[in-house]
Amino acid sequence: MEDRNFSEQEIVRRSKLEKLVKEGVDPFVEAKFDRTHTSEELEKTFGHFSKEELSNIENPELIKIAGRIKTFREAGKASFSTLQDQNGIFQIYVRQDAIGPEAYAKFLELDLGDIIGVEGKMMKTNTGELTVRVNKFILLTKSLRPLPDKYHGISDIEERYRRRYVDLIMSPETKEVFIKRSRIISYMREFFNSKGYLEVETPVLQPIHGGAAAKPFVTHHNTLDMDFYLRVATELPLKRLIVGGFEGVYEIGRLFRNEGMDTRHNPEFTTVEIYIAYQDMSFMMQLTEDTICYIADKLLNTDEVTYSGQKISFKQPWKRWHMVDAIKEYSGVDFWEKMTFEQAKEIAKKNNIYVEKFHNSVGHIINLFFEEFVENKLVQPTFIYGHPVEVSPLAKANAQDPRFTDRFELFINGREYANAYSELNNPIEQYDRFVKQIEERDQGNDEASELDIDFVEALEYGMPPTGGLGIGIDRLVMLLTGQESIKDVLLFPHMRPRGK
Predict the structure, then answer these.
(1) What does the cofactor field's note say (predicted)?
(2) Which of 30, 243, 257, 329 could be a cystine partner for 214, CB 3.0 to 4.6 Å?
(3) What is the pTM of this model?
(4) Which residues fall in the annotated binding site?
């Protein structure tokens, strides 16, 4: 601590701390403060009273409340100050004749950012502002660092993410986003629980990389002396539970993908995955639609939001569009026509679509065309279904055209929000799909899944027809709170070290 370079204000604050300790006042010794109210509860309880009504109450209630000092306004032998707690800002009024000259002098020595507890009675000022008239205060925590300028907050956006705790102190808007995030997850649980689905937990550390096309993080288990992966999906463990007899399970949790970072991607993120026995892709489409509409109505009391300058309508029903039809609409290429891989590669070349060496099928090229020509055109909620079997190793093939699967993705404003399908429950076909994934990995696709023989064996015991769904919670929070970057909906996003 002695080698650190403190600013002038930090030196002053530390000097005040030393003085307090010498006087026998340790501002870190208090273990608790029994509050009677929060700022929100003050407003609910006393906000409707007039100034006169508050002043005429016989035996007025003694208020105990605590918060961080945000402003001071000294006027001779009296001062107004605002304190901040989780729910908001409230005003206190401190008079020298009410708390005594010595205590008042100590009050004036406090700094912005200090956390205090106060005791007093309610009043309203001449302007009608609800205020605690203080008869006693206690310093609960001394702030040794000055807060940023109250009008500008943290001007460096990178510092906002690195010092989220300061951002939360200075920005009510930031705090509101994370309160809404918590509510969104709560409403999702509420909706699923109301339908009788069971919330479960599955391992974060997994011995086999699988459940999604993604590059995993690798760690080492010392006791077992073997490598494990941080999960890229919860899919395979949850489907094992369907094999075991549960008929509707979901998990809200963190996933980890060792990939890039941008405004839409963070290596650590949150999803919900839900699996329901005896249902299919169509049921999961309706469930997705109903879930998001339920959350939007509970959170915003509306079926419309404006996001990135686009008005998004959640009015039901949402559009359902086969991937091949969407590609034909925007590129003119008709992939309903059967063709060889070489023919598809030639069409890709003419349309300036780059084909990787592990893209070894017409299905891969269809998916590339969708990403190039269609994805960013989908503004209103749209279910794209009928993904090629080659890019859907865990989805059931369509009975009428086995080139495609009963899988869909939900797109809103050019971004994917959900991925779902009728789950493949044929263990023989699942084994063959895993083998094809291994071939892709050998050709350079480090996102391809590994062979999970235990999962194949689980399917051999019999999994009923099942619908599965995954929704990206971070992106959903971005949409419903109007945030452009995923970093603005993650309390602690991954950041590059300073100076790199």
Answers:
(1) Binds 3 Mg(2+) ions per subunit.
(2) 257
(3) 0.92
(4) 409, 416
